[in-house]
């Protein structure tokens, strides 16, 4: 008896005939409507009666919404692996993660040779396939910043650029019947996909044994390889033979293959619409229930919970992996897993967590919090991982990633109260809200996560007109350290609601926020490049212009020191928060007088054209070093010392953001973000060497001018920073809330606030 514990995949295998080009597409749509998971197509590029399988898959992916697509199997000799990798990643990105890579070493060599590809002997074809797998995986591995080099006998790449990364961890399913190919699958494949018609009795067991042995020798758990099977047969009212009979007979016989031979993927080879419907609507649900019942009775561990020797050796001390709840274990990523490099880092910080949990609901977040509380390692929480400070990862601890909670819900009742999942990004939010004429002021990058910004502050490009992001949050769902899922607002647990808006990372895991969006027309978005040779003068003039400008104008200033014979440069990102282009031009002309203008572009655009969607995969970069402060004004002395700081070379970038106007209309005690008199935020970003490179110069030159700090840009962990982030009486009040919701300080990664004494 063999059962590797994979969830069942049920799908169809179609002929890509081109006599009626839309017929295979209709069959795929029928399979999706019948509840099946997968549609696959033969790939015979030398066959003139067939559609090209790759073109067909892309068309089917665009014509369906849920079903996964794959070649069954793609003819590798006629598809160069580097190009195949980029095409596969592109299709996966375009379809939202619905592509699987089925690969074959090649068959029908007379026809392949006739198409211009040299014939390979069977052993050579296996070697070529292994080289291709290395190339495909290498192209997809964007966590490695070095050019890809694979010097194989049959396939070579020498310095190929990596990427794009697919939308999900694309499986490689390999069609094979012989031991040499099966050993390759055990070493490097994600699935074995033979056809039942090519197998003799006992071949499944023999093939499983070969794959298992090869997997173990490579340090993998055999369950890392899914066992799949192309099947065919006929549905009839009476039992006429194997897979020749009524649906209940199919359920019995396929169930035996699942529970005794470990097959978890059944792909029905048919072009008959009626067979597709019966397979999807009658066989599939009954087969799933049969297998689930048998597994519950036998206590079969899910495949996602199994680990090979290499993965087990990479586990971290202080984490009880075996106690991880089943629902979380299915999607958890550990060191040694292939997906690990894609989830371990943040935008600027390299991380090495002991496990990454990826819950899909508030209840699963609660399970994760309760489990993490029992581990003897730190806990980090991540929404999108764009935070400059890098606190949303760690080394050796638990990382709770809420990226799957990314919904953006706009009510259909005409109200402006929108619900934002904490794992979404602000570019995604802007994209959804723009067609409704709505926006939320939210930073300057579309890749920033909703949860991080909406619990910290939210200094955005419409801030002087519309305030901070947190000023528009009217409710939130949060999981606290005791595992409770709480919905809070001004009436329901008002103290916790107050604390979440400015210090949310200390209080729990926010899963969604309700925000009152703002009606917004098109906006004027301007980017200027200025000569910053007179650095102090530029700073003083720019700041004075911003303070004197109407609230519609919000401007961010980015400055870099001179290097390589080039003088210091400045870039202004400025928004005029309505569509009055005449008023915008007058204000922008005043800004342009801050320094010699080198380049200027301005455009009238929706807010979604400014804060654009950006779903980047983070690859880290070491330990970030950044310092932050808030300024009442940029007077002559402040401008002089900021210029000296930039000229010292201690930082790569100096940034000032306007935070006055509507930000300061809110009372200091209305939210846990208490800084309501300052007009500018200043931040500096150092080298990969860490904060030590900028601390001394910052403390000498910039810190004396600051009044408070914005903690999202701060990596200095010295205790005095806490009171600067949360000045009294805010800190005392936060400590009281902390004592109520997190008395053991589970959430301590983000400027830890000590709970008040009892």
From TrEMBL:
Keywords of the record: FAD, Flavoprotein, Oxidoreductase
Keyword Manganese included in the entry's annotation: no
CDD domains linked to this entry: Tetrahydromethanopterin_reductase
Protein family: Belongs to the oxygen-dependent FAD-linked oxidoreductase family.
Pfam family, one: BBE
This protein's encoding gene: mcrA_2
EC number: 1.5.3.-
Keyword Oxidoreductase: yes
Name the UniProt record assigns to this protein: Mitomycin radical oxidase
Cross-referenced InterPro entries: BBE (IPR012951), FAD-bd_PCMH (IPR016166), FAD-bd_PCMH-like_sf (IPR036318), FAD-bd_PCMH_sub1 (IPR016167), FAD-bd_PCMH_sub2 (IPR016169), FAD-linked_Oxidoreductase (IPR050416), Luciferase-like_dom (IPR011251), Luciferase-like_sf (IPR036661)
Record domain FAD-binding PCMH-type: where: 348-520
Superkingdom as given in the UniProt entry: Bacteria
Cofactor(s) the record lists: FAD
GO molecular function: FAD binding; oxidoreductase activity, acting on paired donors, with incorporation or reduction of molecular oxygen
């Amino acid at each position: 008896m063999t059962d590797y514990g994979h969830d069942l995949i049920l799908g169809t295998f179609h002929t890509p005939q081109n006599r009626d080009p839309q017929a295979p597409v209709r069959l795929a749509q029928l399979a999706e409507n019948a509840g099946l998971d997968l549609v696959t197509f033969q790939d015979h590029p030398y066959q003139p009666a067939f559609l090209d399988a790759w073109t067909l898959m892309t068309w089917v992916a665009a014509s369906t919404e849920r079903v996964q697509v794959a070649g069954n199997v793609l003819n590798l000799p006629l598809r160069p692996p580097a190009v195949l990798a980029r095409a596969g990643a592109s299709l996966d990105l375009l379809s939202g993660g619905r592509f699987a890579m089925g690969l074959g070493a090649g068959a029908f060599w007379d026809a392949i040779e006739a198409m211009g590809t040299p014939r390979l002997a069977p052993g050579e074809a296996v070697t070529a396939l292994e080289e291709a797998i290395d190339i495909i995986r290498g192209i997809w591995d964007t966590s490695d910043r070095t050019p890809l080099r694979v010097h194989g006998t049959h396939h070579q790449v020498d310095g190929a650029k990596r990427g794009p990364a697919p939308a999900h961890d694309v499986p490689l399913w390999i069609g094979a019947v012989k031991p040499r190919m099966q050993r390759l699958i055990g070493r490097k494949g994600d699935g074995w996909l033979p056809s039942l018609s090519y197998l003799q009795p006992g071949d499944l067991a023999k093939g499983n044994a070969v794959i298992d042995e090869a997997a173990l020798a490579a340090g993998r758990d055999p369950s890392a390889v899914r066992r799949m099977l192309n099947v065919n047969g006929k549905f009839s009212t009476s039992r006429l033979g194997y897979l020749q009979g009524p649906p209940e007979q199919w359920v019995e016989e396929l169930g035996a293959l699942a529970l005794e031979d470990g097959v978890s993927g059944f792909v029905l080879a048919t072009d008959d619409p009626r067979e597709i419907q019966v397979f999807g609507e009658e066989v599939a649900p009954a087969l799933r229930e049969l297998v689930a019942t048998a597994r519950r009775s036998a206590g079969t561990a899910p495949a996602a919970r199994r680990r090979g020797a290499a993965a087990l050796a990479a586990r971290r001390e202080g984490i009880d992996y075996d106690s991880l709840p089943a629902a979380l274990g299915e999607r958890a990523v550990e060191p040694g897993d292939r997906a690990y490099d894609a989830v371990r880092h943040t935008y600027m910080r390299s991380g090495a967590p002991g496990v990454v949990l990826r819950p899909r609901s508030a209840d699963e977040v609660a399970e994760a919090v309760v489990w993490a509380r029992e581990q003897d390692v730190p806990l980090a929480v991540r929404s999108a991982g764009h935070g400059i400070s890098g606190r949303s990862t760690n080394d050796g601890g638990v990382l709770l990633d809420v990226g799957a909670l990314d919904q953006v819900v706009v009510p259909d009742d005409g109200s402006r109260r929108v619900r934002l999942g904490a794992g979404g990004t602000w570019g995604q939010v802007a994209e959804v809200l723009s067609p409704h004429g709505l926006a939320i002021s939210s930073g300057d990058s579309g890749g920033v996560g909703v949860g991080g910004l909406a619990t910290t502050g939210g200094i955005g490009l419409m801030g002087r007109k519309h305030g901070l992001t947190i000023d528009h949050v009217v409710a939130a769902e949060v999981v606290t350290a005791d595992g409770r899922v709480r919905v809070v607002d001004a009436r329901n647990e008002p103290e916790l609601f107050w604390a979440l808006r400015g210090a949310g990372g200390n209080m729990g895991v926010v899963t969604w926020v309700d925000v009152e969006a703002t009606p917004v027309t098109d906006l004027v978005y301007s980017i200027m490049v200025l000569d910053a040779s007179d650095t102090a003068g530029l700073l003083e003039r720019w700041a004075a212009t911003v303070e004197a400008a109407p609230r519609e104008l919000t401007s961010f200033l980015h400055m870099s020191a001179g290097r390589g014979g080039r003088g210091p440069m400045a870039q202004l990102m400025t928004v005029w928060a309505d569509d009055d282009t005449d008023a915008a031009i007058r204000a922008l002309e005043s800004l342009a007088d801050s320094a010699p203008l080198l380049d200027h572009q301005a455009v009238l655009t929706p807010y979604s054209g400014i804060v654009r969607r950006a779903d980047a995969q983070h690859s880290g970069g070491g330990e970030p070093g950044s310092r932050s402060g808030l300024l009442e004004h940029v007077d002559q002395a402040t401008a002089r010392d900021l210029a000296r700081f930039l000229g010292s070379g201690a930082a790569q970038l100096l940034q000032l953001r306007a935070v006055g106007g509507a930000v300061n209309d809110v009372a200091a005690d209305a939210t846990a973000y208490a800084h309501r008199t300052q007009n500018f935020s200043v931040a500096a970003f150092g080298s990969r060497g860490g904060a030590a490179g900028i601390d001394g110069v910052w403390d000498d030159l910039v810190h004396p001018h600051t009044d408070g700090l914005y903690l999202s840009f701060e990596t200095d962990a010295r205790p005095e920073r806490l009171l600067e982030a949360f000045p009294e009486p805010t800190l005392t009040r936060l400590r009281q809330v902390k004592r109520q919701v997190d008395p053991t300080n589970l959430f301590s990664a983000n400027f830890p606030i000590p709970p008040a004494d009892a």
